[in-house]
Every structure is written in C-alpha cells, then in structure tokens.
Amino acid sequence: MDRIYMTGNFSYLGPNTGTVALFDLETNSIVPKRFCPYIESNGTIYASLPDGNGGFYVGGIFDVIQGQTIENLAHVNSECRVDLNFRPNPDGNVRAITKLGDSIFVGGIFASIGGTTRSALAKLNAITGAVDTSWVPGTTSGTVWALENSGTSLYVGGDFSTLSGQARIGFGVLDTNTAVVDPITRNTDATAIYTIYKDETSLYLGGIFTQIDGQPRAGFAELSLSGLTLTTWAPSVSGGGWINSIAKDGNKLYVAGNFSTLSGIPRSNVGCFDLGVTTPTSWNPNVNNTTNSIFATNGKVFVGGFFNEIGTKNREFFGVIDAATGVALDDFNPIAINPIYTIHKIENRLILGGNFISIGGVKRNYAGALDLKTGKATPWDPNTDTAPIGLTSDANYIYIYGSFSSLGGGAYFRESLAQTDPITGIPTNFDYIFSSNSVNSAVAHNSILYLGGTFTTVNLTSYGNLASIDLISGTVLPWNPQGDGSVRTLAIYNDSLYASGDFSNFGVVPRNRIAKFGLDGTLDTTFNPTNDSTSMYHFSISDGLLFVAGDFSNFNGTPRTGKVEIDAISGTNTNLNYTADNGTFFSSASPTHYFITGFFTTIAGQPRISLAKIEKGTGDLSSWNPKLQFGNANRILVHENYALIGGSFIKVNDRMRPFFAVVDQETGSLIE
C-alpha cells in the first residue's frame, strides 16, 4: 500500500508545515520536507527576516518550534533547523524585526526578553540572542508594529504615545548605539503606524493617520531619509482603511492593507503607484479582504492576508499576481488554511509566516488520500456533501459509505454508498437506494460487498440493517437476516462474517450486539456470546481472536468493562483483562498487540491519553506511549511497522501533527 485513504470532518489535506513555510520561486511550490524540514511552529508568526546567511528569524506568539520549547522569537539556520542556542524567549508578542550588523532589533508587546526588562523594544546579539545590556530604551506605552534602520537610526512605528520615555505618537527614531530618542519628531495623529519601508532615499510610512506635521496624509506618507522631512508626494487611503505593508520593485511601489480607494480611485486592499505619482496605476487585482503583507520581485507580486479571492479567482490567504496585468497567476496557488501575516525573500525562496498550520495542500471535502512516500495529497477526491462514516476496498475500487447523498460537489447523486475510482475518486455507475440513508460498515470479499447500517430497505426491498451486493452482476443478493438494530462493524475472517452493533435479534434468533454468519448467509448457531451491552462500538479480528469494544460490564458471565477478547470460533473469553478509566472505541491488531483508542486517560493505572498498546491474550500494557495533546485519537490503523492515527489532536510528542500522525509501532516515535 503506497496510499492511505481517509474520511472525516475536514475540508483540506496538506503538509504539516506549521505556521512558517518556505515557498520556492523556481518550482512555484512549498519547499518539500526532504529539502527543508518543516518548521512546525504553533501559534501565529507576525514577523520574519532573513539572517544574511541563508537562515531567518521569526517572531510572533508561539511556544513550540520543531518540537522545541522556544517562545515568541526564534532563529532558523540555512538547513531549516531551529537554532537551539538562540532563546531570548520574550514574554509577549514580537511584531517586528530588523537587522543591523551583528545585532537585531525586535519590537512588539513584551516587558521582558532574555530575562532582562525591556518595554516593547530590545537589541539582541544576532548570533546568540543575548540582550545587549548597553542599549537600554525607556518605557514605550504601546505596541511596536514596525522597525527599520539606516546608519545609526532605528525607525519605530506602532500604536504608542510615548517611545522610550519620550512623547512620540505612532512614530519615532532611536539611536542604534545609545537608545537615545532622536529629537527630530514628526507630529502625527496616528492611531497606529503598521509598516515602515525604506529605500535609498526615502522612508515610507503606512497605517492609520490623517496628517503629519499638519499636512494632510491619509494612511500613507513619504519622508526623506535626509532630515526625515515630509515630501510633497501625498496619496491617500480611504474607505475607513489603512496600509499594512509596502513593497517596491523598480519604480513601482505596491501597498497592501484594508481600503477601498487610493487617492479617490477604487482599489480593493492592494494597489500600485509609480514613484512620485499620487494617483495609483491601472494595476487593480481586486483582492476581496484585508491584505497583511506584500512582496514584489521579478514581475510577480506576492500577497498574504484574510482574502479568498483575487479578481474572479479563488485564492485562500495567499496569492501571486502578475505585476503587469494584475491577474492572479494560475501556476501559483498553494492553498493555506488560515491567514498569512509576513512575507520576505531569502535567496530563491520566500518566507511565509502566519496563523496557518499548513500551506501548500489541496481542498478535500470529508475524504482524501495521502501518498505515504511523499506525504502529499493524491488526486483522489470524492467530494461528498457530508462526512462519510468509513471506507473499504477491493482490488479495483475504493468504497465509501455513510449518510451522504452526493459526490463530486453535487454532480453525482449516490445515497449512502459509492464505488469510486482509486485514483480520481470519481464514482462509477454503482448506485443503490437505502432507506434511513445510513450505511455504517462495509467489507468486500470474493466479489461480494457486505453492508451493515441503519436501513430497512435497499432498492425498495426490505432488508434489516444487513445486506450484500454481487459486485459482478450488481444485484442485491437475497441474503436477509433481518436484524432489529443498527450494525456498526463488519469483518470477514476464515470464511465467516462477523457483525456487531445495537441489535438483539436476527429474525427470531437472539443475538445480543454481536453475531457470526457463514458466507452463505446462515447464522452460526454455535457463536453466541452473552453480555449486558446495549451497543457494541467496534471490534478487530486477527489470529483467531476478536477484540470487542462496547458499553458492557459483563461478558459471558464474567466481569469485563467495555472491552473483551474472545475466541473467534467459540466466542468464549480469553484471559485478557485490564482496567481503564473510560471507554475503548476503536482498535487495530498487529500479530502480537492491539492498538486501541478511546476517551480513557489511564490504562492499568498508567497514564495513556486516548491511545494505548496492549498485549494479546494477557492485556499487559506496553510502554508504547505517543503523547497526544489538545485532542483525542478516534481511529488507528496498523500498517507494516507503523501505526497511522487520526483524531482531533493537534500535537503528538510535542510536535505539530494536527489530526493525523504516523508513529513507529515499537517506539511510538513520530515518522517524519
């Protein structure tokens, strides 16, 4: 098996990048993990900056990066590995970074960094992250949103009213050597300065303001680097908006933010000016929501933000626009699943940072497949209208089942069951009608598909929650045991069909929640475990043994709380027994062990959060213990030397693994 097929409550499949990723400008795609290990940061990245040696800095609000506890500011080296020696650990949000020689300056909303008191501004050693104790700015009254430097001047923008103890509204300048506030001040009414961009002669400010030094400047202004005097260039931002980011390419100046007009001309959230010209150019991509960051290079303009459309094209939080036409480029569409806040260029790559946990994936509604070698989504895309309950396969097809009514985004009507192409996910003509619209389990064997669920008819003929279909002729077979309750799980073992669920009878024959049939459809009269269950959730079967999970407390007259191992022929209990503080709901078997999931937090008195490995026959708890965080495991599949886990968790073993992970069967360590 080189692909893993999955169903669930999701709309996207993609690489586990974390909140930072590198975009390759030559291949137009996210840099693969084999060339650059994913950063796997949590939280939100608001600021990034190349280090000048092939690596980069990131700042924001986070506490884990590549499994290491590093808070809010980190350095990643040229091999895409987090620098473990760089740990300033500011106690708050980092919003801006600029580099000067062997030092970096960081700004944000923090009170301490590197164990040293610093109010929203600090100077650090660029290699070690150590605080420069000789550079001691005073108190800043708000957040620092933007930093830039030139010579001995550090330009600071934010939402403050005092900067380093001096009255400065939104903008000021500090000496990079002494931290003394420059006496030159620009009087503004700024609510905030969000971005500062520097070229050879000018400093451009963007934010929320209406005037500088008494001169009208609505959200956007140019200062001369010589003396910081206000130039005559006076474009304006309106529509109740502001500028978040500024970029330059040649004689073009690009702006991004939240606005509806530039200098009175309609422009939605991005625009372009010729240098020195107040009115925007005709370039008009028409981005439909706030744009946080913009970067321009080689005839392309990269934007990140809260949008999902550029012009008429769907672009999820990130897009690349032709610098000549303003049209979003079709070759550049790495979908993100949350906003991007920062974009910077490093050699032939872009640093992308934001609030996403993955970027570069594909949309997949409720069902999809991953290539186990590359980790990338395959083209298989059934696109159901609701989440399927599960899937099974034969030599030619993937079958999905549940309570859906259509596939292909509504193009194909299929009620509860579909036979799909294993490559594309497009359904075949295989089409049946189920009353109550729910198939809960399916298994294919010898060209017959066995179905269990909550239905009373198939193609208008009465069937009691169990049915079978001849996969060659397509006919529904006459086998009709007439169960009186839902069937949840089916499995075939040694020419027998096993079923579990909520039933208590098949026809007039009592079978409490679990039963066994011959493949000719006859009920096995010798297999009849007694129990006090009202529902059997799931079972797995291997090596002549069934591991059964349900809500029982007694099985075959013996105390067994919620789980039991029984002989597949006789139905009698084995000696396997263990204590758990909550229920087991799903299992998968290896030759020697069961891998189980549930809502438990302890097994045999030992901590096990929703996931455990127990020995067949004895129930002895293994030391295997992948640490799930921020959610539970719902499903597990044993494959070769791996255990594939799906659920609601976000981290595994302190690494970002949202909702899906692959771990080693023996050690529990993550498979990269």
From TrEMBL:
SUPFAM superfamilies linked to this entry: Galactose oxidase, central domain
Highest taxon of source: Bacteria
GO cellular component terms, semicolon-separated: plasma membrane of growing cell tip
Protein name from the UniProt record: Galactose oxidase
The species this protein was found in: Leptospira kemamanensis
